[in-house]
Amino acid sequence: MDIQVLPLPAEKMKQKAQDETKLSFGRQFTDRMLLVEWKADQGWCDARIQPYAPFVLDPSCLVFHYAQEIFEGLKAYKWADGRIALFRPEMNARRFNQSADRLCMPDVPEELFLGGIEKLLSLEKEWIPGAPGTSLYIRPAMIAVEPVLGVKPSSHYYFFVILSPVGAYYSAGFNPVSIMVEDHYVRAVPGGTGEAKTGGNYASSLKGALEAKNKGYDQVLWLDGREQRYVEEVGSMNMFFVYGDTIVTAAMNGSILSGITRDSILKLAVSLGYRAEERSIEINELMDDIRGGKVTEAFGSGTAAVVSPVGKLCFKDEVVHLSGGTVGAITQKLYDTLTGIQTGKIKDEFGWVRFV
Ligand code: COI
Questions:
Q1: Which residues carry this modification: N6-(pyridoxal phosphate)lysine (predicted)?
Q2: 3-state secondary structure at position 40
Q3: Which residues contact ligand 1 via a Cβ below 6 A?
Q4: Is the Cα torsion angle 219, 225, 231, 233 positive or negative in sign?
């Protein structure tokens, strides 16, 4: 599909951050965005790259009332030789369409998803930061824009992509975060939308996250929605627990997001000589294993979070510490290897990198 490039007037061009090492997460956006529409009688149409600008939408649009929305997150890296690298972007394209299917939205052809991102990046490449730990975060999303109050799948959608130069997701940077296990609210239920990357999952997590923050914790670890017994995920990341030389994460069960970083960590760990297990993790057993010293480290994984060490966990008012409050050796190794492949410092044996 042809993507039209609209002119960027000089007055719409923005100032880039003076000091890349101070970039936070998702507060600044580049000059241009991709916008493609889908109409029931035309399919995908009007693909354009235009100056970054607010949408003017009818207040009755379906997305505002019934949350028919999905999104993705991936990153572009500037390599030392000047090349621009994406990390497993076809996995994002695939997951986007799985989310679309769950939310009754149209499939975005992979060549439109990836081709649109690559064309936008080639115009915005000056925005990719180069300082260690920085990247250009890519946020594709789709929203239902039909103006109607009846609950139904929309007949009109916007698929759009915006770009944001970012540093670490957590203000702590690559330092241990603290996590509270949520034993009241739930994030997802069997048969629900937990596996889809849809805004509603994040909106429903806010209350628990706020209460945890008020108690001094950075994040919430969600348990399963049926029995509140089994570890699921942290919303912004999948969780891993390190037992000696084995990394353990919750098995996919329909309500956990199928993280691309999660999958990469599982494969990397095996290639580095560790063992990797996907299984159910019962919270009381996990607490016993932490108390008894069997769990030596814990970390989360995600596109935004990368690999984030966890230093403290609280469940039902009991606080346990992990990795002596520092970054564990296996966590560090996985972080270094993953980011090394993403930024071209370590050879990509997996064929994960795609150049723009
Ligand atoms: C990502 O890691 O890309 C996400 O979409 C998580 C979000 C909470 C920033």
A1: 197
A2: coil
A3: 73, 236, 302-305
A4: negative
Residue 157 and residue 8 share a domain: yes
Quick one: pLDDT band at residue 266, thresholds 50, 70, 90? very high
Q: Indicate which residue's Cα is closest to atom 3 of ligand 1.
A: 73
Chain centroid offset of residue 274 CA: 25
How far apart CA 114 and CA 74 sit, in angstroms, is 11
**CB-based contacts of 206-210 (< 8 A; 24+ apart in sequence):** 208/182, 208/184, 209/235
Regarding beta strands 69-71 and 74-78, do their DSSP bridges make them parallel or antiparallel, or are they unpaired?
unpaired
Tens digits of per-residue pLDDT, 75-119? 999 999 999 999 999 999 999 999 999 999 999 999 999 999 999
Q: Are residues 9 and 123 in the same domain?
A: yes
CA of 235 to the centre of ligand 1 (A): 8
Cα 305 to averaged position of ligand 1 atoms, centre (Å): 7
Question: Are 134 and 182 contained in the same domain?
Answer: no
CATH number at residue 52: 3.30.470.10
Domain of 325, in residue numbers: 177-343
Q: Would 327 be classed as within a structural domain?
A: yes
For residue 259, being part of any structural domain is answered with: yes
User: Ligand 1, atom 8: nearest CA belongs to which residue?
Assistant: 236
Which residues 6+ apart lie within 8 Å of 345 measured at CB? 339
Alpha-carbon separation of residue 201 from 13, 105, 189, 197, 306 (angstroms): 34, 17, 11, 8, 20
State the pLDDT at residue 323.
82
Q: How far apart are CA 207 and CA 212, in angstroms?
A: 9
Classify 87 as helix, strand or coil. Answer: strand
Torsion of Cα atoms, 296 then 302 then 305 then 306, to 10°: 70
Q: How far is the CA of 139 from the centre of ligand 1 (A)?
A: 9
Q: How many independent structural domains does the chain possess?
A: 2
| Residue 170 pLDDT | 81
- Complex ipTM > 0.90: yes
Question: Tokens standing for 299?
Answer: 């970390």
Q: Residue 162 C-alpha to ligand 1 middle, in angstroms?
A: 14
